[in-house]
Amino acid sequence: MSDRPQLERLCIHETVDEKIPIEAFADAFADLNVPVEIVGDDETFGRTDAVASFRPREAFLDAGWTHCIRAGYDEFDTEAHTEAGVPLTNSTGIHDTTVGELAIGYMVSLARMLHIYRDHQNDNDWLAEPPYERPFTVENERLCVVGLGTLGQGIAERADALGMDVVGVRRSDDPVPGVSELYHPDDLHEAIADARFVAVAVPHTPETEGMFSTEEFETMRDDAYVLNVARGPIVDEDALIDALDAGTIAGAGLDVFETEPLPEDSPLWDFEEVIVSPHRGSATNRYHLDIADLVAEIFRQYQADEELRNRVA
Fold first, then answer.
1. Which of 141, 189, 198, 268 suits 236 as a labelling partner, its CA being 20 to 30 A distant?
2. CB neighbours of 150 closer than 8 A, spacing ≥ 6?
3. Which residues are catalytic?
4. How far apart are CA 313 and CA 306, in angstroms?
5. Cβ neighbours, 10 Å, residue 278
6. Which residues contact 18 (CB under 8 A, 6 or more apart)?
7. What is the pTM of this model?
8. Which residues of 75-108 are buried (b: 16+ CB within 10 A; e: fewer)?
9. pLDDT tens digits, residue range 269-278?
10. Are 86 and 56 in contact (CB under 8 A)?
11. 220-239: per-residue pLDDT in tens?
């Protein structure tokens, strides 16, 4: 048992409102057995306080535990949290459904040309008959999911339900439901060579930065589509633009980018076969409840002196 004191308050920092409705988030903790308070930058903290925040603050190093309400915790100083003895947790592991559905939406739209029909609708234009060979069904098409953590498994499960042939790339050879074949990352090119869709779902690390570049796009089929629902820097955007220009690949579904918001002068806006969404893979009307469930779970683990889920420092 550790000698850390029990938490007596959950503080929800005002930056939470940048991502989710803060009042509704606070209300989601009605069953928590401590007071829940919305606080600003003038608040001070002690070891009996838990803090949930979107942005880091130095004052959080005086609290008992800090939770980052997003999966990406790059802004938070993990070393400072470790030195201060203040656990830092993040919100990974809850995006399987939301991001999985987004990836499915990309694939169905790209296959059945829904994005193109919508473009023509905006111009009040009845699209002439498309080339007969252009629309296709996703059923029986091969999807390669690169990274089979929470995001990748969420994509794979839903793609399998649609009758797709799902293969995956991961270091572990433990079987994954819905995935027919596993490849080691060293065999990435073999894994993506025959796929109609390639979904990027690995975390952003120094090893995965630029993981998809010219060689990878040249390895893919010329009628293949790349989907990036992970982090922008994993895909080399200049190489992607070159591949799209040259017809090396057919198109892309992109929710994340090297620079966000995507600059107005980016060529990615202008490709008919590219779907751009504004980093909203997790955006649903119950996202605040998903995060609240996670925070409440970790809160209970802290009080019970158990290992904290999603601890990053």
1. 141
2. 92, 93, 94, 95, 96
3. 231, 260, 279
4. 15
5. 12
6. 54, 55
7. 0.93
8. ebbeeebeebebbbbbbbebbbebbbebbbbbbe
9. 999 999 999 9
10. no
11. 999 999 999 999 999 999 99
